[in-house]
Amino acid sequence: MNYVYLAGSMEDVSVNEMKDWRTKATLFLEYQEIYTLDPTRRVSFHKQVNEFLEDEIRSMNISKRIFKQDLQDIAQSTVVLADVRRSSGRGTGTSMELMYAHMKNKIIIMIADKDDKPHPFLDSIYTEKFYNIDDALEAVSSYYN
């Protein structure tokens, strides 16, 4: 089965900011029988990293596990839908995921802020860029129909 990976900030954002756009995307796409891989399903792992900051080895192992699982999700996906809006957080992890997706020749649909000037690397690797989630979701679904 081909999936859509939902890339976007998970650090420096609230759980609602992390999940709201992903929930909207999942509902829209599943209605069309297009399924998503949402990294927020591993939020409990992220909480564990913070809980075990004093235990460096345990914290690193959890972080590496999350990283590998996210890369596996991307590898299983045909399309990566990425929220790169600056208002959504720092995005270091998202940038790394997008480079990996680019290297795997995945379709990358970006949601950006109109007033934002993304890093030139981000502008170089997306397939399509949109300024709102509705247009981005329509583009994603077009790759499956």
Describe the structure.
The protein has helices at 15-30, 43-51, 56-75, 92-103, 120-125, 133-142, and strands at 3-8, 35-37, 77-83, 107-111, 128-130. With 145 residues, the protein is an alpha/beta fold. It has a single domain, classed as 3-Layer(aba) Sandwich (Rossmann fold), CATH 3.40.50. It has a 5-stranded parallel beta sheet with strand order 2-1-3-4-5. The chain is globular and about 45 Å long.
List keywords for this structure.
Rossmann fold, five-stranded parallel β-sheet, 5 strands, globular
Short description:
By secondary structure, the protein is α/β, with parallel strands linked by helices. 50% of the residues lie in helices and 17% in strands.
Distance between the termini: 14 Å
Number of domains: 1
At the third CATH level, what is the topology name?
A: Rossmann fold
- The helix/strand class is alpha/beta
Strands, helices and their partners?
Layout: E1 3-8, H1 15-30, E2 35-37, H2 43-51, H3 56-75, E3 77-83, H4 92-103, E4 107-111, H5 120-125, E5 128-130, H6 133-142
